[in-house]
Amino acid sequence: MMEDITIRFDDTIAPEDRTAPIFIEGLPGIGHVGKLVAEHMIHELGAVRIAEITSIYFPPQVIINEDGSVRVCNNEIFRYSGEKGTFLFLVGDFQSTSGEGHYLLSQVYVDIAHELGVKRIFTIGGYGVGHFNEVSRVIAAVNRPDLRKEVEDAGGIFSEGEPGGGIIGAAGLMLGLSIPLGIEGICLMGETSGYLVDPKSATNVLSVLTKLLSIEIDDAKLTERAGEMEVVLQRLLEQEKKSEEELSYIG
Amino acid sequence: MMEDITIRFDDTIAPEDRTAPIFIEGLPGIGHVGKLVAEHMIHELGAVRIAEITSIYFPPQVIINEDGSVRVCNNEIFRYSGEKGTFLFLVGDFQSTSGEGHYLLSQVYVDIAHELGVKRIFTIGGYGVGHFNEVSRVIAAVNRPDLRKEVEDAGGIFSEGEPGGGIIGAAGLMLGLSIPLGIEGICLMGETSGYLVDPKSATNVLSVLTKLLSIEIDDAKLTERAGEMEVVLQRLLEQEKKSEEELSYIG
Amino acid sequence: MMEDITIRFDDTIAPEDRTAPIFIEGLPGIGHVGKLVAEHMIHELGAVRIAEITSIYFPPQVIINEDGSVRVCNNEIFRYSGEKGTFLFLVGDFQSTSGEGHYLLSQVYVDIAHELGVKRIFTIGGYGVGHFNEVSRVIAAVNRPDLRKEVEDAGGIFSEGEPGGGIIGAAGLMLGLSIPLGIEGICLMGETSGYLVDPKSATNVLSVLTKLLSIEIDDAKLTERAGEMEVVLQRLLEQEKKSEEELSYIG
Amino acid sequence: MMEDITIRFDDTIAPEDRTAPIFIEGLPGIGHVGKLVAEHMIHELGAVRIAEITSIYFPPQVIINEDGSVRVCNNEIFRYSGEKGTFLFLVGDFQSTSGEGHYLLSQVYVDIAHELGVKRIFTIGGYGVGHFNEVSRVIAAVNRPDLRKEVEDAGGIFSEGEPGGGIIGAAGLMLGLSIPLGIEGICLMGETSGYLVDPKSATNVLSVLTKLLSIEIDDAKLTERAGEMEVVLQRLLEQEKKSEEELSYIG
């Protein structure tokens, strides 16, 4: 029987090599800002994959790797531990396809963070404004008012009524659901038109995030990565549209 | 693991300070009449928050408070006990996003009412007529025919075939589901165009409700509150629309 | 906690007064043919209500009775036992709102039938042809090929490729799901334009059904009943449309 | 009570006559290429039906057989054991109507395969390109990179970025979900316009598949079968559309 959500840790990695004080979520979303920032950091730091999450709440499809082999679509946890610190990253192909799934998956993510000793979660996303701006702000939210000053000092902007009263999906829910677990939560949203993978917005978010982490990450390859990601995502997006047609056709 | 519906009572409040004979539901709905009436009463009476309900059946998003901190969207129970009587109030950001969720949440609400010693439930809503009327009636329904006369004496109108054979969401289901628990139920629906937060309709409902409760509540600030609520709701509504776009984008 | 599907038998009726060899399903559907035939028979025979089914798979609303009181929307089982025989009837406000709910409710219905000693189930529906016909046939299907001749002798027509390869909802599923229980199943579908409550189609179905039951039922009041039902259903239909708007508004 | 997914093996067939090293999935999909290939092989080989799967995740309807009797819509497993080898086939009326159902059903299919000793699964589908091509390729994917060469030698084409980064439904998920069970998986997708049952595309897929199985299957009747299937599917498709209308009408 299939579980609704399955977590598989790489058992070649010892339990003590899974923990970290910091957890950075960068799942797909508006402008794929979060995904771009998190994947960029994973590559630059050489973070290691320690766990995979699969779920019936993800779209019912497999992804084709470059070598022609397939894998079930998933979310993954990477970990970096080195001179810059110890961080966990959550990245993946998709978020949930249903509202209930968003809650259940986000709860699993914060529960994993809690078990792995996380003290602070960063969720990263885009804030779609629907048009191109000269200057792209980094809008922020926190799950405890006393975190606000620190974020503002790093360049995050708290703007009443933005984003429109709420943050949807894992970026929002992980902040809210980590409150009862005593985990600090900071959401950084890069202003973006929302139409394309947005490396400029990601650069701005990366800047605020690294200040908050007191580390430096080279952002030279962000634009290049955005271009590559755009190609892959266009394919997935096309597939998404086809999927809806096909699902209605075969279901 | 996440429960589908979670109730958290404020444990600084003693169990005997949670009970009440009267329960007033004012969740969001047409013209936000119920929400406006219930929140107005909570403010005027100085009712105290005693419990919070969160659920995977609510939209998958967090609400941003004025100070930049977030909270998971929820429903809340407030309680007033003083010289005017003892009342419970149910208010919140949203109702369920699914039909099944409406049933399951409404059952939880009447079960809570039952446990807290409630003898009578008032559900308050709007009755959308789609156009602006000079006179806005208060249409009523009950869960026992013998309650009808009392409601008519207070100004509630029973009009066969209105509202169109049914009452949807918590306002209707709480009335129906409280029958087997032996709790009396009265629904008051203020006629409204349904397009905006409607303080005139709310004033009329408040008038009937306070007569039935044999209390007086100043309605001077209702219009002012309606204006403030309108601003907040417009934001949420915009967010709702964006959410749908975003969910289809990230899912 | 709420069960997904709840069956409440009237406990003033002894278990031995609940059984019957014949079960007639007439839930809402195309042209409300099944509903009209079953409710007509219930009235003409003076059948007695023995059970009520409520479910989270029904629309989340209450129905307002003529006296202004409400009830949760439901399905009901009536029973007639007298000189014409012993029959159970299944009627109600709605069918399920989801595909999964259709299966789960239909399974409950055939399980109840099985427990009550039912040997044969009749499901009655409309067969929507989208236009008005001079002659309205009664299309039939069975759950065992050897039942076909009997149905044809009574006037039921088996027409390959009609209805289009399948029968949806309870009328179809109850036939299929009763096969493993050894219960015979016959579906009678009155050809109808599908736009209005169709008393002519219902008269034709009643004629075939009563022949199969070897009884006589006066059909004089069918047209009158159809008119009354049309009024009630129009209200519900309007409410349905409003509900969708409201649910999207409050959810 | 109804199980969400039910598997019924024909108990006149001994457990040792259910096993096979090869499992071929041909459920409905784009161009019905998989369904056509699998049903053609079943007929040509004279494979025997050994199990039936029913589920609440299939559309809520029954299928009418030619003799006027009905059956619940299902998926079926056939088995051939003879001089050409021993194969299992999975065919059926529909795939799941929901994303969650796709996962749960696909998991059941690979679990059955595992229990029956299967070492290799072939999933067959169409690859809809939206226009008519002179030459129709057979696009392939595998669940282990080392399977690629064998498939290429048989005529399967691995084309990076086709199909658009993913394979949806059972054809994809069974490949992915069989990885942890140690079962080899090969997906063959016949390029097709996607609008009609496509015997040309099926002929190409059959050619690659039989090379991989080292058997010969006469393809003379494929076009004839495609014509018959087209008639049946048109009916089902019409019924599907009607179903959606009816479900919204009766629900």
TrEMBL record, chains A, B, C, D:
One Pfam family it belongs to: PAC2
Recorded superkingdom: Archaea
Keyword annotations: Proteasome
Matches recorded under InterPro entries: MJ1210-like, Proteasome_assmbl_chaperone_2, PSMG2_sf
Gene Ontology CC annotations of this record: proteasome complex
Name this polypeptide is given: Proteasome assembly chaperone family protein
